[in-house]
Amino acid sequence: MTTRQQGAIPVFQLYGETHQWPTPDLLHCESIAERSRLHDWHIRPHRHADLVHVLHIAHGEVRLTFDDDVQRVQGPLLIVVPAMTVHAFRFSHDVDGHIITLAMPLATHIADTLHPQGQVLARAGFYPLAEQAERAPIATLVAQLDAEYRQPAEGRDALLEALLNSLLVLASRRATRRQARRSRHHERGEAHLARFQQLIEAHYHQQPSIPELAEHLGISSAHLSAVCQRLAGRSAQQLLHERVLLEAKRHLTYTNMTIGQVAERLGFKEPAYFTRFFKRHVACSPKEFRQRQP
């Protein structure tokens, strides 16, 4: 199969190769260094129409790109690249690992045979192997698969498939645990955000600082802002300012309080501070805002 162009993203068999699939097997295994060294350790964005990659990084760093998502990850880990996923890798020069490539007939057969564990091949993802209990068996399976791939022997195909099945079952377990942790992390984030919004409602008129509110939650201000950005699309400071501005607009619209009285009610030490704050966020002064109301 020759290289084809689909938009600006090339479609390869193995990266950089324009000739036919280089093996009679439906599986190809090589060290990451074998191919990446030829390309200065940088595998540029591309995709495969009918191939699936499973990478085992025993050691070293990878700058990993999936479509528009870029992550810098450290071995040991597994990476799964389904067919048609745009991907790129920039490996550190000390990287140690293997890339196992499955032709689609084999990937489909394994996905059906191992269902539901075989579905790990359908999701782009990376799975750090932090615990020795999961790291050692996977490293052993990859080493055995690589050794068996490189030499003809009786029962080779059956053993390769058995090793691959075992590897993918462990990969699926790791992916499932990662997803469960992400779900728990998301739930904790939602709880932090809800509690933060309660604290804003109770204390916004006292001009609290974000570090003070974060301390009430038992987390750092950086963590709090990250949670707010991820779940609410705004920083913690923006959420606090939005509540202060809402109350300011209510007072300016529905009461006869002076600008100074509104500023005092909202915890500003000087009316001038309140005016600058309001104008920075609303693009007009409190007086101008009040005059515009019907």
Automatic annotation (TrEMBL):
SUPFAM superfamilies: Homeodomain-like, Regulatory protein AraC
Family annotation (SMART domains): HTH_ARAC
A Pfam family recorded for this sequence: HTH_18
Domain (HTH araC/xylS-type): residue spans on this chain: 194-292
InterPro entries recorded: AraC-bd, Cupin_HpaA-like_N, Homeodomain-like_sf, HTH-like, HTH_AraC, RmlC-like_jellyroll, Tscrpt_reg_AraC-type_HTH
Keywords: Activator, DNA-binding, Transcription, Transcription regulation
PANTHER family attached to this UniProt entry: ARAC-FAMILY TRANSCRIPTIONAL REGULATOR (PTHR43280), TRANSCRIPTIONAL REGULATORY PROTEIN (PTHR43280:SF32)
Protein name: Helix-turn-helix domain-containing protein
